[in-house]
Amino acid sequence: MFEVMVGAKRRRLRLAFLYGVSILLVVFILFPFYWVFRSSLMGEEDLFSRPIVWLTRHPTLDNYRYVFTGEIPTSYQVKGLMRSRVSQETRYILGALKNSTVVAVSVTLVNLIFGTPAAYVFARMRFRGSLRVYQFILMSRLLPAVAIAIPYYLIIKWVGLLDTYLGLILVYSAITLPFSVWYLTLYFRSVPASMEEAGLVDGCTRLQALRFVLAPVAAPGITAAAAFAFMAVYNEFLFGLMLTQTIKSRTMPVLIAGISTNPDVSYALLCVCITLAIIPPVILALLLRQYITRGLLTTISK
Amino acid sequence: MSPVGVSGRGTLASSTPMISGRREKPFLLVVPTLGIVLCFTVFPIGYALVLSLRRFLLTQPWDTSFVGLRNYWEVITSDYFRASIASTFKFAALAVVCVLIYGGLVGLLLDARLWTSRLLQVLILLPWAIPPAIAGIMWKWIFHADYGAVNGFLVGLGLLKDYFPWLSTPSTARTCLVIAHVWKEGSLAAVLVLAGLQTIPRELRDAIFCDGGGPWTYFRHVVIPFLKPTLLVIAIYETMIAILTFDLVYVMTGGGPGNATALVSWYAYIESFRFLNFGHGAALSFTIAAVILVMILVYLRVLKTEEVY
Predict the structure, then answer these.
(1) Which of A43, A109, A148, A243 has its CA 20 to 30 A from that of A199?
(2) What is the mean pLDDT of chain B?
(3) pLDDT band at B11 (very low <50, low <70, confident <90, very high)
């Protein structure tokens, strides 16, 4: 809508304005990322100086080295009253990232292995009560997390799965499957059924038709569903907070939140953790941008 | 997980191609999914209902007598609940308005044919992609009282005399929360607005400009009516998201200062896990769920009548 307008001068002015606003927005979106990354490269004396140092003069990887090897950065060895504490919990970040990744990948697999055939059935076949079952699965998404958090905690505790991968995987599967099934059902329906019919006539079973005929065609939809499931689990906080107790299963957001709410936290090390933690979702989002944008549109409407 | 986005009009394919002569057991393919979902919906809801009608303090586990609706009554009449409703309402109102404005603005800029538009289309997904808890910590560090970027910037420019504790001042803590929330949630709104804008037929625009209308006329009489359903959907969806905000509160303010940012979800959490009163917590959760459910019904109604997309 912006490009048509009378008068070259007004036009130029308007363009300058639009570019101005756009650039401000780019800065607003990127600034938190920049700020965290910059802080992760700084020694404490730089980090805690006034006026604020916008670009560090002495970038250092010491903080990263500490998180990976436990070697205390030189800037922390300055003696005196102002000496800040080293947040030792930050060394657990690799474990937490492993936990998050294992759980998220497992849940994604559960979604693909169980969700895809279910979606296929809802898209193409019928059985007695199939509509009811479909609606039930969809309706279960209506429950706000806060409403089921307490019973989930008590149930998982009761069956002895607190602080285990399995407990997390079960709960996360239950909350991601409805979306995956719904999303894939819609996606499969947008693919003409005639393709698989040819396969079925040639004598393959339904599952084979799904696997060899439909799945390759619907690969973008399946990829998007997998990405959504992975990111939902990787980013989830509330259930992770309640269902994990030690670093044995503690997930990344829970660990980092725990570190950050400590008033004595060393921000440089915290920022190292954040930088490491957001690499996977950021890369996923950039790689799968097209699928995700399309998927987002389906999540809220339809 | 977000609570909405159900239905697909809740129907199944009307014409189902069935190849006869082969015995298929489609139900078996649905069983695992249905099983998991069943286990984690029906049972927990029933359990929570029982909890909410009983006395259930983790500090006094021996006494779990049936108390009827007393938990609900105690929760709803408590001062803390009233305060949390008030702050949730203020937070949600501000957050929804800001997300709408921000999403609308970004959406328009995404749609404009500028070289920054393509860049923005990529960047806008970054805040969406990262965990809300992490986003909250990033902003907490930016608003830090002693070494935060906001203080450094404002003091550096001479707009602010001295470093200010943004997050521990009741009047500014909520605004900080809203800024972080908009940064994170605005992405989805912007993508939706962009999609809405792309449905506007080009001829309409050309017609307006041929008739001598300017961009304002176009905006007022074409863009706004076209976007109305999208904006409505965003408004309702974002209201629910704002009411259920928990992660940001947990990492940024912990409900404080005082109880300035103690939203209802936070209240339900500390009632259960700090005060260890699971009966109260369950009653509170049910109350919140009921409110959200009503909103979802309204939402589905709107989707149906407005025929979005």
Answers:
(1) A109
(2) 84
(3) very low
Kindly report the pTM of this predicted structure: 0.88
Q: Which residue type occupies B303?
A: L
The pLDDT of residue A208 is above 90: no
Pick from A19, A141, A253: CB nearest B5: A141
pLDDT the model gives residue B4: 39
Give the DSSP per-residue string, B59-94: TSTT---B-TTHHHHHHHHSHHHHHHHHHHHHHHHH
Alpha-carbon span B265 to B281, nearest angstrom: 10
Task: Give strand pairing partners of B277.
Answer: B57
The full length of chain B comes to 309
CA distance A268 to chain B (A): 11
End-to-end CA distance of chain B: 23
Q: Which residues of A touch B32 (CB under 8 A)?
A: 114, 118
CB-CB: which of A31, A178, A293 is closest to B191?
Answer: A293
Residue of A nearest to B214 (CA): A5
Q: B13 pLDDT band (50/70/90 cuts)?
A: very low
The single residue listed with the structure tokens 């706000």 is A144
DSSP structure string for chain A: --S--S-HHHHHHHHHHHHHHHHHHHHHHHHHHHHHHHHHT--HHHHT-SS--SS-SS---HHHHHHHH-PPPGGGG--STTPPPP-GGGGGHHHHHHHHHHHHHHHHHHIIIIIHHHHHHHHH---TTHHHHHHHHHHGGGS-HHHHHHHHHHHHHHTT-TTSHHHHHHHHHHHHHHHHHHHHHHHHHTS-THHHHHHHHTT--HHHIIIIIIHHHTHHHHHHHHHHHHHHHHH--HHHHHH--STTT--HHHHHHHHHTSTT--HHHHHHHHHHHHHHHHHHHHHTHHHHHHHHHHHH--
Cβ–Cβ pairs < 8 A, chains A and B: 358
Q: What single-letter DSSP state applies at residue B221?
A: I
**Could you give the maximum distance between any two Cα atoms of chain B, in Å?**
83
Encode A166-191: b = buried (16+ Cβ within 10 Å), e = exposed. ebbbbbbbbbbbbbbbbbbbbbbbeb
Is the CB of A154 inside 8 Å of chain B's CB atoms? yes
Q: For residues B103 and B192, is the Cβ–Cβ distance under 8 A?
A: yes
Question: Residue B277, SS3?
Answer: strand
- C-alpha distance across the termini of chain A, in Å: 27
This model of the complex carries an ipTM of 0.90
Distance from C-alpha of A145 to C-alpha of A149, rounded to nearest angstrom: 6
B283 DSSP 8-state letter:
H
CB contact under 8 A, B146 and A48: yes
Phi, psi dihedrals of residue B57, rounded to the nearest 5°:
-105, 130
Nearest CA in chain B to A267: B141
Q: For the segment B160-199, what is each residue's pLDDT rounded down to a tens digit? A: 888 899 998 988 999 999 999 999 999 999 999 998 888 8
The model's pLDDT over B217-251, given as tens digits with 9 standing for 90+, comes to 888 888 888 888 889 889 988 998 999 999 999 99
